[in-house]
Amino acid sequence: xxxxxxxxxxxxxxxxxxxxxxxxxxxxxxxxxxxxxxxxxxxxxxxxxxxxxxxxxxxxxxxxxxxxxxxxxxxxxxxxxxxxxxxxxxxxxxxxxxxxxxxxxxxxxxxxxxxxxxxxxxxxxxxxxxxxxxxxxxxxxxxxxxxxxxxxxxxxxxxxxxxxxxxxxxxxxxxxxxxxxxxxxxxxxxxxxxxxxxxxxxxxxxxxxxxxxxxxxxxxxxxxxxxxxxxxxxxxxxxxxxxxxxxxxxxxxxxxxxxxxxxxxxxxxxxxxxxxxxxxxxxxxxxxxxxxxxxxxxxxxxxxxxxxxxxxxxxxxxxxxxxxxxxxxxxxxxxxx
Length: 337
Hints:
Blueprint: E1 2-4, H1 10-22, E2 31-33, E3 42-45, E4 48-51, H2 57-60, H3 72-89, H4 91-98, H5 106-114, H6 118-128, H7 138-148, E5 153-156, E6 175-180, E7 186-190, E8 196-198, H8 207-211, H9 221-229, E9 235-242, E10 258-262, E11 268-271, E12 282-289, H10 290-297, H11 301-315, H12 323-326, E13 327-335
Parallel strand pairs: 3-10
Antiparallel strand pairs: 1-5, 2-5, 3-4, 6-7, 7-8, 9-12, 9-13, 10-11, 11-12
Helix pairs in contact: 3-4, 3-6, 3-7, 5-7
């Protein structure tokens, strides 16, 4: 889990400080730098490996001459940066301005307000986003960029499970009921053996999961309607365990953290920030969002790992790495509405 060092996430850091004040030394949550980007992170598009700042793609993709000589990231920042600066200067005022375009998709904003041709929208979406993500609202994309434009990020050393404690994570125990009690407590009932009464309950779950709770409080019409209608971007992640951290020992341009963008089925390859430089096994995380995630989620798990290894083999083909020999095991998860 990666956490941006931004004021929007102050409650997370408050929680960590509180937990550490109550924990034994061995249980304290230790934050380490999360490397969002590393200079050697490659971009792999059209079977060509380059870097995220490559300015030659515009001409190669036959974009209008006005868009030649600029990377996809530069083009995107020219559009979103004024909005990010407005939000950082005064969030409430800036957000009211953002909401003026809330009825537009980001793609429509790029076409109708900024004046980008269709092919430029497609190019920037491919290189800097996910398939069909620009069909989300203008507001959603701006807020996502506000997060990812944060310069400093952290993660929890070894495991983010320390935030709640391994002993407090209960699997195969779906919540069946949430009931407010007359003594200002809340009773939570699960299908397992972990029911109880609490002062408060935080539901950090997707609306689809909330909808599956058999008995829960009912809120106002607009809140319930928002929960019914909210759109969660489909997301697919697969963690692949390898015998060595081979991506840190390539003949050239080894990656120590960060991520690579591709036009393969698995659109992002994330290199771990934990355990940098260790002589041990390691895990690569492959991401797909939106349409790419939906396509993968319909496939059997055995097919997904076959495709993942195939795509990684293509990506690392120029490095002499045999990912099949390195492979140990995997675990994947699909999230959707």
